[in-house]
Amino acid sequence: MKTKYDHFKEKLVSHWKNIGRVRKVLEVLLFTVLAFLTVPSNSVRLAIALSGHPHIALHTQVTKAGSGETRYLLGKYHIGRAYEINNSYLSWDGSYYVYAFHVTRIILFNVAYSVPEPG
After folding, report:
1. pTM: predicted TM-score of the whole model, two decimal places
2. Do 39 and 58 contact (CB within 8 A), yes or no?
């Protein structure tokens, strides 16, 4: 008699054998993105990479913002967390330099988006 784990493993292996190469790549990519979103600093790196700066995403240091910056960055209700990077870059529209991110947790995943530089 098979256990539930053996049944699940058999179904997963048969699924993996039956799908095409493109779908395998898409499933692995989706799983990787979801795994990155579980850690706040990795979600910041993913946001940087998706904004068109993968080199900066790989070679930057992500730290939590101080309490003074957190009040400004998170606004009135202080929902979420603020993170800063050591390398700033120009935003997608060229109107401000990105150095801070607002990270919000949705169930298990963290979503990061850039915040304009104060001033």
Report:
1. 0.70
2. no
Q: What would the DSSP string read from start to end of 77-100?
A: TT-SEEEEEEEEEE-TTSSSEEEE
Q: Nearest to residue 118, comparing CAs of 78, 86, 74, 62? A: 74
Contact 57, 46 (CB under 8 A): yes
Q: How far apart are CA 108 and CA 37, in angstroms?
A: 8
C-alpha count within 13 angstroms, C-beta hemisphere, residue 32: 8
Convert the pLDDT of each residue in 25-74 to its tens digit.
Answer: 998 999 888 888 888 888 888 888 888 888 888 888 888 887 766 666 66
DSSP line for 24-63: HHHHHHHHHHHHHTTSHHHHHHHHHHHTT-HHHHHT--EE
In order of 30, 35, 86, the CA distances from 110 in angstroms are 15, 10, 20
Q: Which two tokens mark 81?
A: 């967390």
